[in-house]
Amino acid sequence: MNALEGKTAIVTGASKGIGRAIALLLASRGARVVLGARNQEMLAQAVQEIKQAGGEASSLALDLRPPDAPARLAAFALATFGTIHIVVNNAGATKRGDFEQLTDDDWADGFALKFFGAVRLTRAAWPHLKAASGSVVNISGIGGRTPGAQFAIGGSVNAAMLSFTKAMADAGIRDGVQVNAICPGTVRTDRFHTRLGNFAKEHGLSLAAAEPAWVSYEGITRVGEPQDIAELVAFIVSPAGRFLQGALIDMDGGATKTI
C-alpha cells in the first residue's frame, strides 16, 4: 500500500514547476490530488498525466488573490473527494527590483497571492484537517531568512510565511494538525531560467556556461530540481515524517550560510 493511499491533497500553484512536481509525486504515492492554479490548460495536462499513470486528480483554475477564492478551492476538494488531509501552499511569485521602484500595488500583490492565499486556504481547510489529523506544508523560500536588496517583497512575504508556519504549528499541536515549511533555494523553474538568461547577458556567457558560473557565484552545490522539493514534501506528509512539527527546512544546496 502506498504511504498516502486514501489521502486527499490540495496543491496550489500546481500547473508548473515545484507545484506540479509535488502534485504528480503525491499522486504517485496514492493521494487523490486537487490541483489549483490559474492556467486551465496546464492544469488539465497535469491531471491527465496523473490519471494516465493510474492516479486520481482533479483541478480548479482560479486566481487565489480574491478573498473568497481559497475557500472555493477547499469546497471544490470536498465536493470532489469528500475530505482534505493535506494542504500544500505553493502558489505565489513576488516582484523583484530596487526598493525605490516597487509600488504599493507590487507589495500588495506579493502578499495577496502567496501569504493571504495560504492563510485563507489553511483557514478554510483547518476544520477538515483537524478531523483527519492532516498536514500543511508551506513552500516559503530562503529569502525569508536571508533577505536581499532585490528581494524586499519576496523576503518579507517569505518571512511572514515562516512566522505563520510556527503559529499554526503551535495551534496544530492542540488540534492534531501537522504544519511545516520548506524554504527552497535556486530551483530549475521558469523564473530561474529568466534569471539565468539575465545573468548570462550580464557576464557575457552562454547559457551552458552560465549555470556552473551561477552555482559558483551563489556558493551552492547545484541548481535544485522541482522533484527535490516534491520528495521532501512527500516525506513530511508521510507517516515517516510525522514527528516534524513547526520545522522550517532549508532545501537550498547550501545557500543559507547563517544559523
What does this structure look like?
It is a single chain. The chain is α/β, with parallel strands linked by helices. The chain has one domain (8-188, 224-250): Rossmann fold, CATH 3.40.50. Helices cover 50% and strands 14% of the residues. It has eight helices and seven strands, in the order E-H-E-H-E-H-E-H-E-H-E-H-H-H-E. The chain has helices at 17-28, 40-52, 69-81, 104-132, 152-175, 190-203, 207-218, 226-237; strands spanning 8-12, 32-37, 56-61, 86-89, 135-139, 178-184, 248-251. A seven-stranded parallel beta sheet has the order 3-2-1-4-5-6-7, with helices on both faces. Strand 2, helix 2 (40-52) and strand 3 (56-61) form a beta-alpha-beta unit. Helix 1 (17-28) packs across helix 8 (226-237), helix 3 (69-81) runs parallel beside helix 4 and helix 4 (104-132) packs parallel to helix 5. The longest helix has 29 residues, at 104-132. The chain is globular and about 55 Å long. The mean pLDDT is 97.
